[in-house]
Amino acid sequence: MTCDLSQTRLHAYFDGELDAMGAAEFERHLEGCPDCETRLAAEEKLRAALAGAQLYTRAPKSLREKLQISLPKAAIPPPVEPSRADSWRWLAIAASVLLFVVVGWQYLQNLNRTLRPQTMAAVIVDAHLRSLQPGHLEDVISTDQHTVKPWFDGKLDFAPPVRDFANDGFPLMGGRLDVIDGRTVAALVYGRRKHIVNVFVAKAQPGDSLHGSGELQGYHWVAWQQNGFSLTAVSDVAYADLEQLKQQFFAP
Amino acid sequence: MLEQQDRARFEADVLPHRDAAYNLARWTLRGRAQAEDVTQEAFLRAYRSFGAFQTGNARAWLLQIVRNCCFTWLQQNHVAEEMTEFDELTVPPKAENPESLAMATYDRERLQRALENLPAHFREIIVLRELEGCSYKEIAAITTRPIGTVMSALARARQQLRTLLTEPVPKGASRDL
Fold first, then answer.
1. Which fold has domain B86-166?
2. What is the structure's pLDDT at B149?
3. Is A217 left (phi over 0), alpha (psi -120 to 50) or beta?
4. What's the predicted TM-score (pTM) here?
């Protein structure tokens, strides 16, 4: 049996052409589709083989010279052939280029570890929107914090704070796992009048980029760090409501 | 003739893509000597029309010219190429199954031959995506096709490439590479 997506979205996913929401949606599909899983593995194998076979053919020296002759001279500076005396200088340049590349690469790795605040806010709002789709809101449905909290046991490498704030107008509705920027986080779901509030809870990390509050596509978010957690509340309710929830979250 | 400023811009923005240009030509034409001539021709054309190119993606702009030069060359030299369009290319007779996916062998020589034996429009899309690392948007610009067509063509190109890799090695199939 061939899955229709294996000829379409699978490739867009494989090539990194889906947005965060589309990619997450496809990943959900992937979990339940052995056909797509097999094909994705085959695509990865083919790509690795193509990369490993070094089929890329660089312009030969003769072509570089021809380009130099055929285009007006001023356009291209003649290539400098390094003389023997120059070779140490070239080695030094090569070494500094290598150093630059290595340092730059590590810098980029660090940069990539956490998304920029603007992107991060978009990812959070995407996750909130995703959760509002039918059947996606909660993995554990309970208004009882003593049911929701143990549900996370063994699913995360930390114990998220779970409390019911029904008396303050934020009844606990349930919880689920979510993936934000590559990290598995706890998502706590609260009701606020007829609205839904998602509170994403992760272990605080040095590079956590989201602080303060903001608005995106009509949704508000409030992010803060407290008690070793990074928390982001997101909803279409007013800022003041999210601020109120934030104040209560760890209140004694 | 280009102004001094444009010349410097050509030098900075377009010329560095000579490897990309040559690589596309080499795979589209399936030969090194032809690729050299056609790349040179493409650069001359690019140089002459550079005034019209103001901003944007210089690599995609250059590769579009290279591609046009390649297909013109193939036509003029009456090279027998399977030039059918994506839409007309039928799905390969052997549908892929998990067993055949696992059977494909991936040594360099086979990969090279399989890629060369792909129909021209499939070959270029694999070269642009896998060797050159172009985005769908860039491939769409270079090949003047809608992005959706790029995606489905890529899916079929990959499938056909794998099919070629599972076939037994034909005798005397080796080319001048």
1. Arc Repressor Mutant, subunit A (1.10.10)
2. 92
3. left
4. 0.56
CATH class of B4-76: mainly alpha
Q: Does B83 touch chain A (CB under 8 A)?
A: no
| Mean pLDDT of the residues in chain A | 83
Q: Looking at CA atoms only, how far is residue A48 from chain B in angstroms?
A: 9
At B60, list the tokens. 């995609």
CA distances from A133 to A31, A245, B4 (A): 18, 23, 58
The H or E element containing residue A179 is strand A172-180
Q: pLDDT tens across A88-125, in order?
A: 677 777 777 777 777 777 666 555 545 567 788 888 88
Mapping DSSP onto H, E and C, the string for A181-239 reads CCEEEEEEEEEECCEEEEEEEEECCCCCCCCEEEEECCEEEEEEEECCEEEEEEECCCH
Judge if A11 and A128 occupy the same domain: no
Q: Residue A177: which H helix or E strand, with range?
A: strand A172-180
- Here the CATH number for the domain that contains residue A236 is 3.30.200.100
**Residue entry with tokens 């086979």:** B110
> Could you say which DSSP state residue B128 is in?
I
Q: What is the pLDDT of residues A183-239, one digit of tens each?
A: 889 999 999 888 899 999 998 887 776 778 888 888 888 998 888 899 999 998 888
Interface test with A, best of B101, B103, B161 (most A CBs within 10 A): B101
Rounded to a whole number, what is the distance in Å from the CA of A14 to chain B's nearest CA? Answer: 11
The answer as to whether A135 is a domain residue is: yes
Cβ contact, residue pair B111, A60, below 8 Å: no
Q: Please, which residues 140-179 of chain A have a Cβ atom closer than 8 Å to chain B?
A: none
The ipTM assigned to this model is 0.85
By mean pLDDT, which of A11-20, A154-163, B83-92, B117-126 is the weakest? B83-92
Separation between Cα atoms, residue B18 and residue B21, nearest integer Å = 5
Q: Which residue of B has its CA nearest to A42?
A: B101
Mean per-residue pLDDT for A25-51?
91
Residue at token pair 């010329």: B15
Contacts 24+ apart (CB under 8 A), B32-35: B32/A57, B32/A60, B32/B176, B32/B177, B34/B73, B35/A57
